[in-house]
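Q: what sequence does this backbone want?
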């Protein structure tokens, strides 16, 4: 599978009501947050829960915030001024790594979360 595909798999296993940062995904996959950001920006899967991926500060690109807010409200993800309260809503990274590895096999950064 491609890195873009691997990113999509990881995003799909982020539980509803939780978020992860680009850096969280990058660490898991052994790449950089910028590479994950590019992979997210070029996704063509219409049902990918993209609103669950935010910057390390809980923010996201300004042009996406208005589209993300209804999803955050529906999932009970707290936010203030367009930024998710990431410390409160970050997914359990060890569980995320386990879920991703069950679908993708061993991942370069997954051992760091155990």
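A:
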């Amino acid at each position: 599978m491609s890195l873009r595909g691997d990113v999509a798999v990881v995003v799909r296993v982020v539980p509803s009501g939780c978020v992860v940062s680009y850096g969280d995904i990058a660490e898991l996959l052994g790449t950089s947050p910028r590479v994950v950001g590019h992979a997210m920006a070029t996704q063509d899967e219409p049902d990918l829960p993209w609103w669950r991926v935010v910057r390390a500060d809980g923010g996201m690109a300004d042009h996406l915030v208005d589209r993300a807010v209804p999803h955050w409200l529906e999932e009970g993800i707290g936010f203030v001024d367009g930024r998710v309260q990431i410390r409160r809503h970050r997914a359990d990274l060890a569980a995320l790594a386990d879920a991703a590895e069950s679908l993708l096999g061993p991942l370069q950064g997954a051992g760091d979360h155990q």
